[in-house]
Amino acid sequence: MYGAVANDAVTVGSAERVQTGTAGIEERIAELLGQMTLAEKVGQMCQVNVGDSYIHDYLAEALKAGRVGSVLNEVSVDVVNELQRLAVEESRLGIPLLVGRDVIHGFRTVMPIPFAQAASWNPGVVRDGARVAAAEARRSGVNWTFAPMIDIARDPRWGRIAESLGEDPYLASVLGSAMVEGFQGDNLSGPGAIAACGKHFVGYGAAESGRDYATTNVPENEMRNVYLRPFGAAVDAGVATLMTSFSDIDGVPATANRRLVRDVLRGEWGFDGFVVSDWDSIRQLCIHGLTADDEGAAFEAARAGVDMEMHGDAYANHLERLVEAGRIDPGIIDTAAGNILRIKFRLGLFDNPYTDPDNVPNPLDAANTAKQAALESAVLLTNEHDVLPLDRGRLASLAVVGPLADAPRDQLGTWIFDGDPNLSITPLAAIETLLGDDVSIRHVPALATTRSRDVSGFDDAVSAAAAADAVLLFLGEEAILSGEAHSRADIGLPGAQAELVRQVREAGKPVVAVIMAGRPLTLANVVDNVDAILFTGHPGTMGGPAIADLVFGRASPAGKLPATFPRMVGQVPIYYAQKNTGKPPTPETVVMIDDIDPGADQLSTGLTAYHLDAGYTPLFAFGHGLSYTSFCYENIRCSRTELRLGNSLTISAELTNTGERAAVEVAQLYVRDLVGSVTRPVRELKGFCRVHLEPGESKTVEFALHTDDLAFYGRDNGYAAEPGEFYAWIGGSSAAELMTAFRIVE
Ligand code: BGC
User: Whole-prediction pTM value?
Assistant: First the structure.
């Protein structure tokens, strides 16, 4: 994946500039390490927060002394160039800086939040979004982003699900790798490429009760089969760096977790990039109660294999002494500094540490890329009587209601340090542009924010609804309700929004809800009171034009949910790839205390434990998403019903567009391994593809499956596929019913 630095005879630094010559990167690292003092090596392992476009004297001195390997949070290109100059021209060895920033889903131009991008099930969309973000960030001197976040997120209460690629390890692996490729390009030293960082290694998404930073307890088998998988895929895709998680994992916080960082990541996977701590998470080892002081924290983190400390001073203050006292092997420091230098070489920073913004081409049109991403990220959850798309030819008046119809900042979502709300085109603006003077539009926010409980604007909203031919309700969560340390216990619509829906409904007009949010919400009370729901996540800069195109049928939604939407929060965690119980419910054993359909048709698939008042199906299944047309799956076939380990088969089905519009369908393949040396999920996603079909057109969708694709970590954590019987489903969601079976023999 990486391009080697091609230039010969590299000259860096000033006084004792290092001639790193024509040798390959490993030789150049060794040569440089040979000239570095212990203090300079430790310096590479320290990252300093800048943040206010000002270089404090202490920072300038530290840079000159070679005591800083990286800075973060500086995006003024002039300041970044000056920081590089101090490091390169005024330090003894002239080692350039890594300049880090959270470029999570865009820089100036903001793409949909990652959770929404994941609903596109389109690696191309994710790759292009990251490519645009990388080029924009690179112009500011940033050469390293702290993304993608590839934590498996199975708890929608967790605020950081917004940054995630959803609940499924396969989907997150495919899309996370695409994001790495988008940021890093074909060649890390190419124009507009920046180093990516897979985070948070590992298990962070399993925070108890979804409370951010809370303890995680993930048994090793589940860790390997679920949480580690996207990280393995990112390493295979050439991710330059990884970040450890804040959380405690089974007693040893990730930042001190030698077993995971040193043994699995380095030992088993051979990762040769570097590992950065999360923000101050080394010193936080003391707060966790793992170590008594910062020195102990530095000791634990360095021994675990954390190469760089993000914004803390445990390494700067203690590592040298720990080495001199013989407590830390100098080899650990050499390896860490070498890992960091390797990425600097691969980025081409030794050849050119400076940024000329005019020399960073943007490979794609940023606004169009953002619009396409927003279009493909929208999921049509319900559409009673095909109320959508609205026919503008038959509309004389439209009510646009709700706190998110015209909220340029909130539509961008979480983690948009550099995102420019002035670039946002809101749904209201886009709808006005699209409809021009043909339709009279009345806009009533009704609530000042999504959290507001002040209902004084409701009468106005209801009268606008009564006077209109149709109502578009823009609801959800404002940006600050998701993201880091923004978890919620109640994941319904906040504030008085559900009441707004009820009152608007009483006006008796067709009502369409567009939901912008940072997480799956419990929407049972909304489903019953509106005719259609379009879930867009926070759709980013171009969310408005994308929504307008979808609502008025200039495009058909094709997004599919990357996580299960529960009926009620008490079902959480609820995800499709659950394990069976020893006592799966049958129609006879299911006792409901409320008027909820328990989902009896799911019983044949082995779905599993339930609540008396919620049943055992979610409100919307993983993979669910409607279209303006309809699709039919039939004739599922396996190319062979029996195969030996080491071979492949093809599973196919006929997919027909049975409606009247051309559209894209994301066809999905799920497999169940009936018996394993450890119990297996009732279904696992094994493939998906996007299929464009004209009305009436049929295509065969085919998935090639090698027995290696069915491998998992078994009883002794050995990784292998096991012989036995398998079920396979092809369909439009994880609740697909079209099923076949095959058998693997030894
Ligand atoms: C977050 C990281 C982020 C870092 C730097 C931390 O609080 O957990 O994901 O990259 O801050 O901003």
Answer: 0.96
